[in-house]
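forwarding from the other thread:

> can someone predict this with glutamine?

sure thing
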Amino acid sequence: MNVAGLTIDAARSAIEQRVTSALTLAEEHYARIEKEDGQIGAYLTLCRDRALAQADRIDRLAAEGKPLPPLAGVPVAIKDVMSTRGVRTTAGSKMLERYIPPYDCTAVGRLEAAGAVVLGKTNCDEFAMGSSNENSAYHPVHNPRDLSRVPGGSSGGSAASVAADLAVAALGSDTGGSIRQPASFCGVVGLMPTYGRVSRYGLIAFASSLDHIGPLTKTVKDAATVLWTIAGRDPMDSTSADVAVPDYVPELEKPIRGLKLGVAKEYFGDGLNDEVRHAVEAAIDKLEKLGCEIVPISLPHTPYAIPTYYLIATAEASSNLARYDGVRYSLRAHGVKTLSEMYRRTRDEGFGAEVKRRIMLGTYALSAGYYDAYYLKAQKVRALLARDFDEAFRKVDAIVTPTSPTAAFRLGEKSNDPLSMYLADIYTVTADLAGIPGISLPCGETKEKLPIGLQILGKHFDESTILRLAHTYEQS
Ligand code: GLN
């Protein structure tokens, strides 16, 4: 079976109708990974035994003519920040090079319960810190659309695996844009759900108040299917919300005519690449032709989003990453004489440069005497950013923006300039700070044939509306 462009529905129905088997489909994906992934670098670990056992289970159900679950036999990839029982989980770090979790992340468990076949774990920036995947302690990921370019980050391996047909769908995590930005760089769909919509249980923490798990897929419908599978209250995560999960797929077909779409001038200012601007403006025109009403809005605190994000994210990271002390998890420095030397040497050997930079920034922001001036102040600005969205959503149903100010840049182009890398997160960090959902979907290409992403932001727990808009746009 040709796996190029293969979607969830196509894979599932091919298995249901016995045109192929889940086992064959998994093997076909592994064969492609064997052939292609040497130059892309999307995967860090493959879990063939686990995948084939699951595929076999599905094939037996199909052979018995039993009803198949919604993701029956669908080959998926999981960002290596999600724990997988018995399968190495590194978070892209040397610190966890030999870490084998004793339990599954809830989102992964729910995918498998719905029949998905987990092929392996995908490469990412170390502890999900980065926008280019160049901070992986193992190797970079190359953008399948142009191997000299980055796939985006930090879920670069997940985005590349879907774009290169090395998986039908993938899970990523988004703390400041890490699902949506790599989706836009690789030309796939990436959905960040509302904070609390999907359990974070088993997600290796970066910044707990900002971390979200969500899908990267080839189509909007596939994103709806995956979200429906993984969403909903989980007793293992007290921040997971007890809010009903609608059946997103039938909702996709409802009309979008009459919906009000906000366009914020703050998202179209300096620094936005012209080709990206034109593609996004053309997409907005198209949505208008499809019957939406375009409403100019203002999100006045947007200029403060980057400093606010990089204070809160680093502060929470410095606290979360304190657990890697050489006592627990995998790495421990050898030949140390005292406890404090073990802590220091383990952390020095286990963490890469970007992670160390963030721990230092975050520890500084949280330290006595500076807490009020930095962390507390950032929390206040975060509330203002959230209020901007609340006010906008009184007038509009969704907000359309570019996902990233540029298309994929070259490997090495920004890696020595962390500040310019941070500034490129301007259009994505705001939604994480406000806790609202956002989707990125392809809306065109640059002259060099690099994908451009359109971002649609929605109200809290209203993933249905942004999925419906995205689906209607994609189908037109
Ligand atoms: N690029 C952002 C950062 O480096 C976002 C990371 C993320 O969403 N995990 O922090």
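The longest helix spans residues 372-395. thats all i got for now
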